[in-house]
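Now for one record.
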Amino acid sequence: MKKLILFDILFYTVLPLLFWQYGREPFGDYYAMLLSTVPGLIYTIYRFINERQFNIAGVFIIFSLFLSTTVNLVSGNAEQLLWNQVFLGYGYAVVFGLSVLFQKPFALYFAVDFMYLQGYSRENSKSLFKTKGIFMWYQLLTALLCLRSIFQSSLKACLLNAYGVEGYGKMLIYL
């Protein structure tokens, strides 16, 4: 488990920050930002293939990566890329909020996937997690994911307004 945490930090924070810092001058801001997303994309796909599990969490991660990569590629410049990421974050907040509203909280399905990886049946976990006393906590947790997405997008928008594209390194650290 410690090894996974170290790899997560390496591929989602350290390498993107290095690609950003050392890729800006030779490639420009926009391409350096695109390049900084590559380690996380490759690592996530590798983990998805390595675990060989079809699960809601994995599909959500792959879909999110595909969507964010597509948005990044069509952005055209660094500033638009960052604003599109802000809008995409708000979009994710809407998805999480709707899952709470329709009584299908994403956190519950993520927990079912996690329990399956621990050796428990999906059906048993799902029926247990949907009991009245437990289900409300998954609703609350998904609502917190919604609020987190709103907070992160708002923070990124504030940092973008305050520092512009030059503040991308700070955004990587803060977020």
About this structure: Helices lie at 2-27, 29-51, 56-75, 78-101, 106-117, 122-129, 132-163, 168-174. The longest helix spans residues 132-163. Residues 86 and 153 are 5 Å apart (CA to CA). The chain has eight helices and no strands.
